[in-house]
Specification:
Elements: E1 11-14, H1 16-22, E2 34-39, E3 43-49, H2 69-88, E4 95-107, E5 116-127, E6 130-139, E7 142-155
Antiparallel strand pairs: 1-2, 2-3, 3-5, 4-7, 5-6, 6-7
Length: 158
């Protein structure tokens, strides 16, 4: 059987330098270290390496460090935002992505120092400058959190 489809999936990635170019976030609030798989603005897998020396673990929680769920959601949103900015980048115009909403968030298991969190993002739909994304956070292939994220792209000067 021969393949007759002309649809081609072109996967790419983003280094930390490219992420810093796309997003306004900086340490300690940048929640992704790299994006290992991007399919346009359709899907992506972002990566966060959780280390014990992150400032959040001074208070969350001493003796039992757990990476906060709200920061997992932020990592999901940053991954979606980075691929949208990369996909939409045109001739010098700088855009940013603002989170409009988080729905159906569920936290299944905690993450902590030594874990690598993968943020699996899938576009649900997008109209002009507003998009909705299904997001799952995984550690070692196990879903630890999931949510639907709605975001809006705006000019950086707005």
């Amino acid at each position: 059987m021969t393949e007759t489809s002309t649809d081609v999936t072109e996967l790419s990635a983003m280094s930390i330098a490219e992420i810093l170019e796309a997003l306004p976030h900086r340490y300690p609030f940048l929640m992704i270290d790299r994006i290992v798989e991007i399919n346009g603005d359709e899907s992506a897998i972002g990566v966060k390496n959780v280390t014990y020396n992150e400032p959040i673990f001074l208070g969350h929680f001493p003796g039992n460090p757990i990476f906060p769920g709200v920061l997992i959601i932020e990592g999901m949103a940053q991954t979606a935002g980075a691929i949208v900015i990369k996909h939409d980048s045109t001739g010098g115009r700088k855009n940013i992505v603002l989170m409009l909403g988080v729905d159906n968030a569920r936290f299944r298991k905690p993450a902590g120092p030594g874990d690598t969190i993968e943020f699996h993002i899938q576009k649900m739909h997008r109209r002009r400058n507003v998009g909705r994304y299904e997001a799952k956070a995984k550690v070692n292939g196990t879903v630890i959190a999931e949510a639907e994220i709605t975001a809006m792209i705006v000019g950086a000067d707005q």
